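User: Just a sanity check before I run the rest of the batch. Below are the structure tokens for the first item. I only need the designed sequence back.
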């Protein structure tokens, strides 16, 4: 039983690694969208696009036997982080500060 558990957990770790790699790839692409939007003075949020994505996530969740609420909740958090990053790209300097905004990486180091 211990061996089986170890095998299954190794598989979980491998899948988690893939999910994180894919997430990093998604953020790399959305960063480019953010730069494009900043360059053309477009708003960070596109509510119409997000509504279409929401429907797609629900359909894909059902097609894959997953709870649509779980999947849409995960993407809500991811998209909220993207939009925050876009906001930072559009407003590169914090008011009253000569320092550039800290990257999200720095925030992660706080305790
Ligand atoms: C990436 C974009 O910007 C925002 C982030 C989105 C996302 O992470 O999928 C979707 C819509 C926008 O609110 C975009 O407009 O495509």
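Assistant: Here's the designed sequence for the first item:
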């Amino acid at each position: 039983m211990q061996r089986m558990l170890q095998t299954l957990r190794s598989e979980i770790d491998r899948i988690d690694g893939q999910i994180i790699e894919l997430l990093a790839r998604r953020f790399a692409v959305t960063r480019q969208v953010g730069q494009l939007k900043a360059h053309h003075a477009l708003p960070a949020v596109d509510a119409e696009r997000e509504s279409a994505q929401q429907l797609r996530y629900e359909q894909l969740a059902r097609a894959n036997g997953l709870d649509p609420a779980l999947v849409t909740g995960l993407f809500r958090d991811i998209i909220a982080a993207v939009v925050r990053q876009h906001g930072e790209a559009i407003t590169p300097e914090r008011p009253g500060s000569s320092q550039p905004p800290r990257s999200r990486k720095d925030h992660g180091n706080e305790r």
